[in-house]
Amino acid sequence: MKSPDFSDLKALIEVNSWTQNKAGVDANGKLMQEWLEQLEMTTTVFYRKHIGNHLLFSSTIEKEKPRLLLMGHLDTVFPPQTFEGFREDDEWIYGPGSCDMKGGNFVALSALRNVYAEHGQLNNVDFLLVSDEETGSDDSKLLTRELAINYDACLDFEAAGEDHEVVNGRKGVATFCVELEGVAAHAGNHYTSGRNANLAAAKLLIALTELTDLDKGTTVNVGKINGGIGANTISPHAQLMVETRFTDTKEQVRVLEAIPSLINQHGIEGVSTSLSGGLQRDVMMPCEEQQMLVDTLSALLGYTLKTEQRGGVSDANVTAGAGVPTLDGFGPFGDGDHTEYERASKRSFSRRIDEITAVIRHFSPKQPQ
User: Cα dihedral sign for 281, 282, 286, 292?
Assistant: First the structure.
């Protein structure tokens, strides 16, 4: 496997593209746009005011043939002047986004370049880059879902597993905020006049946590609780921040139906509740159509693609939730993501670029001259 030229990856990593740094995220996108338009891909810009623009790069459509969507994200997690810069040694690339996921975007870019150089064109393979994945894809997930249904398969370029596993399952996630309003009263003189929001919150914390079913991979966590004024006051307000994760569609439905009906069942008269939030990303479950995609890619490569399931989420959850066969983890193997020790394996880049080149070659065969 030939080692790639990492100069373009260096250019990407040296741009600070923290999600909230719109100018930096857009600068990252401009680099990708420049390079992909050199491959005669057409750019559609989905302009955003406060976050980076989302970008769709399209090749020529050949009707009646399968279409493939490659997916990546432009944003990283490090604010300016925290963890910045590119560094390399004989084995590793270091820097923000080296594996999550400027490294993955570079794999896709390099493979597209390879096939374009071979065929002189690209067909039926498009590339979507969103700008807000690291903060939950709250803006982009609807767009991703709408676009995904136009494709026969989706590949996401989050980091590979240690043995180059691709991801065929990810937990779904939902987050909620429960607000509780009681009645304040002096805890010594007028104890019975108060309506204790903290007490209701405590009872709800227990009831919500009991929705957890570890045997089915479902967790409900009240990760943060706020409430009250002081020790001598019956609490007039409280707040619970709740996250739930699930590995099964039935469990997703069960928990998402249970939480809204549960929040008024705290048993404390005079305390009212309100609920905000909801599903962030659908569960990504292994399925027959996805396994057919694994088998197809394995046949192309001449060896079996190993698979794994992960607890974390990505935009692959969104496309899988839309019913499109989806695999993730096609970026390079790396570690230390979301820390100042983030790095990606040079050898892994070579392997992944070769693999994705073969995949794109399959979906975008050379046309007769």
Answer: negative
Element (H, E) at 180: strand 172-181
Give residues with Cβ within 8 angstroms of 335, minimum separation 6: 99, 341, 342, 343
* Domains of the chain by residue range: 7-170+284-363, 172-281
Strand partners, 178: 240, 275
Task: Spell out the residues 6+ positions from residue 269 whose beta carbon is closer than 8 angstroms to its own.
Answer: 195
For 181, 191, 194, 268, the CA distances from 186, given in Å and listed in that order, are: 16, 6, 8, 18
Tokens 């509740």 found at? 273
34-45 pLDDT tens trace = 999 999 999 999
Q: What mean pLDDT comes out for the span 180-187? A: 97
User: Which pLDDT score, from 0 to 100, does residue 203 have?
Assistant: 97
Alpha carbons 12 and 1: distance in angstroms, whole number: 23
Residue 23, classed as helix, strand or coil, is helix
What pLDDT was estimated at residue 319?
97
pLDDT value at position 1?
64
pLDDT in tens, 37-89: 999 999 999 999 999 999 999 999 988 899 999 999 999 999 999 999 999 99
Largest CA distance in the chain: 91
User: Backbone dihedral region of 54: left (phi > 0), alpha (psi from -120 to 50 degrees) or beta?
Assistant: beta
Instruction: Look at domain 7-170+284-363 and name its CATH class.
Output: alpha beta
Number of Cβ within 10 Å of residue 335's Cβ equals 15
Q: What is the pLDDT of residues 339-361, one digit of tens each?
A: 999 999 999 999 999 999 999 99
Mapping DSSP onto H, E and C, the string for 128-171 reads: EEECCHHHCCCCHHHHHHHHHCCCCEEEECCCECCCCCEEEEEC
Amino acid (one-letter) located at 348: S
> Do the domains spanning 7-170+284-363 and 172-281 agree at the CATH topology level?
no
Measured distance CA(349)–CA(330) in Å, rounded: 10
pLDDT of residue 289: 96
- Residue 109 pLDDT level (bands cut at 50, 70, 90): very high
Q: Does domain 172-281 have CATH number 3.30.70.360?
A: yes
**Residue 309 and residue 166 in contact, taking contact as beta carbons nearer than 8 Å:** no
Q: Position of tokens 């100069």? A: 7
